[in-house]
Design a protein that fits this description.
- The chain is α+β, with helices and mostly antiparallel strands and 480 residues long.
- It has a domain of 233 residues.
- 19% of the residues lie in helices and 41% in strands.
- The protein contains nine helices and 25 strands.
- The strands form five sheets. Strands 11, 12, 13, 16, 22, 23 and 24 form a seven-stranded mixed β-sheet that branches. A six-stranded antiparallel β-sheet has the order 5-4-3-6-7-8.
- Helix 1 packs parallel to helix 2.
- The longest helix is centred in the N-terminal third of the chain and has 18 residues.
- The N terminus is likely disordered.
Amino acid sequence: MVKKMGRSIAFEDLTLDVSDLEAYLSAALSRGGDYADLYFEHRVTHRIILEEEIIKSATKGVDIGVGVRVVVGERTGYAHSDDLSRESVLKAARTAAFIADSSREGGSQKLIGPLDRKHELYDIPTMPAQVELNRKIALLERADQAARAYDRRIVQVNCTCLDETKHVLVATSEGQLFRDLQPLVRFDVRCVAADGANRQSGFEGGGGRRSIDIFDGDLKPEELAREAARMAILQLDAVEAPAGPMEVVLGPGWPGILLHEAIGHGLEADFNRKQESAFSGLIGEPVASALCTVVDDGTLPYRRGSLNIDDEGSPTEETVLIENGILQGYLHDQLSSKLMKMAATGNGRREGYGHIPIPRMTNTFMMSGESDPEDIIRSVTRGLYAVHFSGGQVDITSGKFVFSTSEAYLIENGKVTAPVKGATLIGDGPTVLRRVSMVGNDLRLDRGVGICGKDGQNVPVGVGIPTMKIREITVGGTGT
């Protein structure tokens, strides 16, 4: 359904005249581009940090601007402006047109929107930007007190409360007009434990496209703080990780970051269009164990990686990437879908109005299997149980990765035993997928802290997996 549109549209404190939007699009196509769009953004962010039991910083940021994109075949022209005056936006539109430069005569543009959204995934009563500062500070103080009360060996606590309220409007040369109001909250706790010269750290966080109320409900600051303190204390008694090839069991939830990095990026369409991915040209072919079904789903309510519309105005979708081990397709933005002649999947994302949209993941996870997680552990004679990761690196072309664990344990004769430190997992995504030998029935998504970097752009994402066993990964460590 198309709503009846007046001659102006409210955009935060501004009023955008529809005739101006049409003029901007006409200017963008003045040299005959195939397609053009406008991405208006108004973003309000807050960050409050508590250290040493006092508020160390409290900052507010306001960003407003527009990005203008012009597409000619495989070539893209892009320009942006933080000045939304008519003259400045027209200048950006003409600049993008000259960069793309098809040297063909363009035509006038007409808008038919705004269009109804397919989803309403984060309808909340109060946007984060409307919440008073004292309420956020109280959350930080609660977390700090809970962490310090956990164990006398907790010597340092760092708590951060972050929130974002973003209003976007997308107008396209196809006549469409979309808008969305996107909340995002996150709460992090980092603890340092000390026992003499032995110092170890632990981290926990959570959030989503919710109101601040979530921290009085499902994600209480005290719970996050105690979990960060537990991980720090645990590491004080951890032994050095053994090294060599061995069976590895990944715990449910956040370890899905390995799936995201080592496999998910390789399934983004731009890498495959350029033949730069280990999965290029393999649609319809087996690329994983038959136990593996991998999905990217931007339609999960309130999740960190979810969106009503992507940053091109397309509705997000549930996209099955791998089904029972068979590669089904890639994650597309509008450009890759047209060039590869495949359906768009609503995965065109950008960090902000100063960045071009590219194919990106939303919430990426492996579906549950049929195995009991306890049976998976019992099946391992000697191996590693990886519960939490702190970071990693991956090469998209080969799929090779190195990931560092922040919480891991030995598995000996079917039982989880000593915690280990310094363990890294070394391998490549395609090989790891084929070596998946058991998949648990306990799919869990992360608590809402994922940040994905690509081409200099960071966007919020979600990850998840059930417990799963990989029959062999090389583990790096200094133990025996």
